[in-house]
Each structure stands twice: as C-alpha cells, then as structure tokens.
C-alpha cells in the first residue's frame, strides 16, 4: 500500500505541471486563431460598432492576452472556470450537465473494446498459427483500418434508418417520463450505436496486442517448464500466457483514453449525444474561448486520472514497477 501511495504522490506532482502546460498552451493556440466570440455573435445576429465595443468590454476581450491569461489562472486557483459567453451561465454548471453523458459513453466503449478485444485476443493467441488465429488477425486488421466516422454512418443507415432497431440520435427519449430501470434501458438502447462506433476500433487494437503479446510469451522458458510439468493447455493459457500478455494492454488502456475522448467529439456530433464532445463543437462554432478552455481542462484532468489509475494497477500487477518507482 505504501508503494502505491508513493507512486500516486509522484504522479500527482507531475500531473500539476502537465495541466499547467495544457492550460497555457491551449490559451495561446486559441489566441492565435482569428476572430473571437464577438465576431461569431455578429455573424449570426449583426450589430453596430457601439455594441461591439460594449460586448468586448463586458466579456473582457478588450484586455491584453497576458492579462486575460493571468486572470484565468487566478480564477482557476479559486476553482472558478468563468462564465460561458454563448450560454450566459457558469462554465462549471454547463460542463457538469454534459460530463456524465461522456463518462457513460467512454466507460461503455472502454468496457466493450478492452473486454471483448482481450477475450478474442486470448482466443486467437491460444493456438498461434491456427485457422481462428489467422481469421481473427485479418478481421482485426481490416476493422482497425475503418474510420470511426464512416463506421458510425454505416451503422446509422443500416440499423437506425433501414432496420429501425435503434434510435438515430440522442441520449434518451425526450420527455418520456421514464425512471429507474426503464430509463436505464432507454439510455442503453440509445447508446448501442455510439458505443459500438467508438469501441469497435479499439477492440481490434486490443485484440491484436493481446494476440501479439501471447505469441511472445509462448516462446519463454517458463512456458516450456509449465508444459514439462504436465499442466493442461487451458491452465497454461489463462494462468501464465494471458496473464503476462495482459500487462501491455493495461498500459495501452491509459494511452487510449485521450484518443477515445477525442473520438467522442465526432461520435457525439454524429449521434447528437449531449456530451462534452458535442459541447466542444458548439464552443468552437460560437468561439466561446472560456468554455472551450474549461472543456479541455476537464478532459485533461480525466486523462490524468485515468493514467494514474492505470499506473497504480500496473504497480500491483507487476511489483517490479512499484519497486523501481519507490527506489527512484
């Protein structure tokens, strides 16, 4: 336990600097982009020069970039994300409304990709070179090459438009009045296609990684020793080969969290899922810089937390990692 706490403390200290770099870097990139929230407002509604000047002063856009960055960092120290220009509401409230949707989407997609992908990888890697190994390897390669947005559009056309098995868009039925299990079932039905679109690509990746890892473990000396002791092939596969091949997948689970969070922007836009991804698209369209900064900050915190959990899990799965961190 002390080893895990030491590892957690070291990672948290490093994460603070990572988040600071993300905040400053994102702010500078957004400042370099042409236009601002006032320009986006004028494009949609119009206005005179007096209104433009008043809006810039009201939103603090008349100040220098350095002053606005310093004010933003000072507000963050007080856990204040600021006010959304587009929604005229505190950014914290806007994000907290959308965050659970994205967490559910990412959690279900991760469970699908990691669980099914590793299981199929074990099934393929249990007998390297067999027919099932070749078939699953080829299928995973083809599936990994498919763009996520294209897969999402195909699923919508086939299963939502033609067959009408699942809803085309949304997170749940609007004003349905459902509660409890009925509401959970309605949400699950709406998320079948988004979760499949987001998770299947990473499923193929985990399948290939597990299969490749097991192929390497099969060649190690302790596997030959296990065979010499007369252990059954099933026990060797599950207790020795798959267990050792699982460690790289745990590392990849943390690395893929950022990519999956980025992929949710496209998937949520296609299926009109009201999560952080779609909120980010709306913030970009309306040039709501404070809101976009808040979304990126919360996303970065999510990725950091996921990687912290992965590091702790890896330390428990492989004590050598925790020991090296403790001695460093």
UniProtKB/TrEMBL annotation:
- The question of whether Transport is a record keyword is answered with yes
What is this protein called in UniProt?
ABC transporter permease
Provide the ABC transmembrane type-1 domain boundaries.
99-314
Q: Which InterPro entries match?
A: BPD_transp_1_N (IPR045621), MetI-like (IPR000515), MetI-like_sf (IPR035906)
Major site of localization recorded for this protein: membrane
Q: What family does this chain come from, according to its entry? A: Belongs to the binding-protein-dependent transport system permease family.
Enumerate the subcellular locations listed in this protein's record, separating them with semicolons: Cell membrane
> What is its membrane topology?
Multi-pass membrane protein
For this UniProt record, the keywords arranged alphabetically read as follows:
Cell membrane, Membrane, Transmembrane, Transmembrane helix, Transport
Upper classification of the source organism reads: Bacteria, Pseudomonadati, Pseudomonadota, Alphaproteobacteria, Hyphomicrobiales
Transmembrane annotation, as ranges: 12-30, 103-123, 135-161, 187-207, 291-317
């Amino acid at each position: 336990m002390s080893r895990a706490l030491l590892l957690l403390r070291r990672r948290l200290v490093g994460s603070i600097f990572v988040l600071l770099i993300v905040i400053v870097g994102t702010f500078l990139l957004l400042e370099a982009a042409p236009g601002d929230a006032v320009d986006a407002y004028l494009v949609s509604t119009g206005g005179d020069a007096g209104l433009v000047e008043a809006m810039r002063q009201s939103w603090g856009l008349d100040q220098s970039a350095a002053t606005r960055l310093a004010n933003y960092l000072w507000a963050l120290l007080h856990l204040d994300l600021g006010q959304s220009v587009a929604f005229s509401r505190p950014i914290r409230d806007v994000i907290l409304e959308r965050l659970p949707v994205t967490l559910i989407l990412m959690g279900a997609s991760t469970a699908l990709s990691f669980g099914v992908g590793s299981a199929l990888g074990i099934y393929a890697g249990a007998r390297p070179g067999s027919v099932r190994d070749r078939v699953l390897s080829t299928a995973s390669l083809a599936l990994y090459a498919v763009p996520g947005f294209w897969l999402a559009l195909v699923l919508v056309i086939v299963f939502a438009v033609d067959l009408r098995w699942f809803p085309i868009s949304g997170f749940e039925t609007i004003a349905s009045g459902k509660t409890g299990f009925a509401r959970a079932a309605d949400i699950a039905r709406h998320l079948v296609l988004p979760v499949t679109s987001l998770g299947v690509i990473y499923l193929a990746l985990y399948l290939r990684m597990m299969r490749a890892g097991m192929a390497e473990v099969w060649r190690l000396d302790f596997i030959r020793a296990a065979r010499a002791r007369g252990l059954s092939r099933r026990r060797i596969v599950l207790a020795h080969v798959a267990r050792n091949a699982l460690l790289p997948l745990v590392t990849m689970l943390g690395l893929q969290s950022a990519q999956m969070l980025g992929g949710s922007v496209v998937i949520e836009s296609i299926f009109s899922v009201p999560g952080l991804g779609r909120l980010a698209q709306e913030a970009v369209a309306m040039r709501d810089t404070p809101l976009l900064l808040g979304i990126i900050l919360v996303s970065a915190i999510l990725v950091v937390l996921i990687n912290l959990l992965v590091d702790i899990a890896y330390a428990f799965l492989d004590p050598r990692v925790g020991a090296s961190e403790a001695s460093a």
